[in-house]
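> example.struct
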């Protein structure tokens, strides 16, 4: 690459602050070899020499303001997850690569960005099927293992939005189209690129579904309407091994200060222990909720401690990523760096030996004023899940208020 000429660097956030006038509308595609490309939209704003891209997935708006220009290239840094776009100008827009950090090293995939105001275009259909509602979904992975999920969909005309919930979290904001006998949806948040498609059978079921993620991953899925379905989280919940055991951990915070759950600050208080990582979008959604809730309600007499499991054991790398969370979401509770990677098979034994294995990121352990584990929770139903998100917030608030009495 030619010598970098830095024209300007600006930082990323979630709010559009430059201009309310869109200067360009882009249609971006993460290119998969099998043709199941992950599509998302970008609105471009300009104010003088300042530039902002806003990635759009349904109601979500992810703002990017960190750009580096060379003679013939544009490098775009995502505000979270250590992801970047390396682009070159083309006749139609841009082309290049998406790079994201992975548990086994960096992942690179082709990307194309062209001017277009739409996401997916389907020919008009006279077939009237509305997919709005709740669906019982079944996913089957490459090894043949089946898992249950809930699809919450909303269809207006041909436009389709919603999310899919699993026992370990949700696929966040999905957007696409439904037309006659098929549907397609996608989302891109910087670190995850998801594609969903399915056929609509004559009896209204969703069949022959494909869930594609990343460069090569494929699962099949199907779904039937079920307004009453709920997920059983039993298999992914953490548990304390002995009822009388108390948590005992001590790790450095982002300033390197050692923090223990046994410190005076936490004695006699309800403590929420957040199991998370800066690479995890569901953890980002949970951090946004926990930080706001803590800042508004800490006078109740409870505390939160974040335990971070990163892709690397390097303290400075973890600190850099976690500081983005801390600054963006105004996190005032301690976030501790465990120094154990998220894919370490002994991650629980090395950090929380009193508990059964961590099976989901994020997970939550709620400790009572007597130091005993009162409840655990796996995954997080984020704002894209609608009523599920509101239900979680209500139940969490009720539990905290009950425990602090």
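> example.seq
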């Amino acid at each position: 690459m030619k010598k970098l000429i830095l024209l300007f660097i600006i930082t990323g956030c979630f709010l559009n602050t430059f201009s309310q006038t869109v200067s360009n509308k882009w249609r971006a595609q993460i290119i998969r070899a099998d043709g199941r490309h992950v599509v998302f939209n970008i609105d471009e704003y300009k104010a003088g020499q300042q530039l902002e891209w806003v990635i759009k997935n349904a109601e979500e708006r992810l703002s990017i303001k960190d750009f580096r220009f060379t003679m013939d290239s544009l490098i775009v840094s995502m505000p979270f997850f250590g992801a970047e776009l390396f682009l070159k100008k083309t006749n139609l827009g841009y082309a290049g690569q998406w790079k994201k950090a992975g548990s086994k090293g960096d992942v690179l995939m082709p990307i194309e960005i062209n001017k277009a105001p739409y996401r997916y275009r389907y020919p008009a259909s006279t077939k009237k099927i509305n997919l709005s509602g709740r669906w019982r979904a079944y996913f089957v992975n490459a090894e043949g293992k089946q898992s249950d999920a809930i699809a919450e969909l909303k269809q207006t005309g041909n436009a389709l939005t919603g999310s899919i919930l699993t026992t370990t979290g949700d696929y966040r904001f999905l957007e696409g189209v439904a037309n006659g006998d098929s549907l397609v949806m996608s989302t891109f948040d910087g670190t995850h690129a998801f594609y969903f498609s399915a056929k609509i059978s004559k009896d209204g079921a969703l069949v022959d579904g494909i869930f594609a993620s990343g460069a090569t991953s494929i699962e099949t899925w199907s779904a039937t309407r079920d307004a009453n379905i709920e997920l059983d989280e039993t298999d992914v919940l953490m548990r304390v091994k002995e009822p009388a055991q108390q948590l005992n951990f001590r790790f450095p915070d982002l300033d390197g200060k050692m923090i223990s759950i046994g410190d005076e600050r936490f004695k006699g208080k309800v403590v929420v222990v957040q199991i998370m990582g800066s690479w995890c979008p569901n953890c980002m959604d949970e951090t946004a909720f926990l930080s706001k809730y803590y800042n508004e309600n800490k006078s109740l007499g409870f505390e939160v401690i974040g335990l971070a499991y990163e892709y690397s054991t390097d303290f400075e790398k973890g600190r850099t990523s976690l500081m983005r969370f801390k600054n963006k979401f105004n996190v005032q509770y301690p976030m501790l760096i465990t120094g154990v990677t998220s894919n370490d098979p002994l991650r629980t034994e090395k950090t929380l030996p009193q508990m059964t294995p961590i099976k989901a990121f994020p997970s939550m352990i709620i400790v009572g004023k007597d130091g005993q584990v009162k409840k655990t929770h796996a995954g997080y139903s984020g704002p894209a899940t609608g009523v599920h998100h509101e239900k979680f917030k209500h139940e969490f608030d009720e539990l905290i208020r009950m425990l602090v009495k």
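> remarks
Residues 1-19 have pLDDT under 50 and may be disordered.
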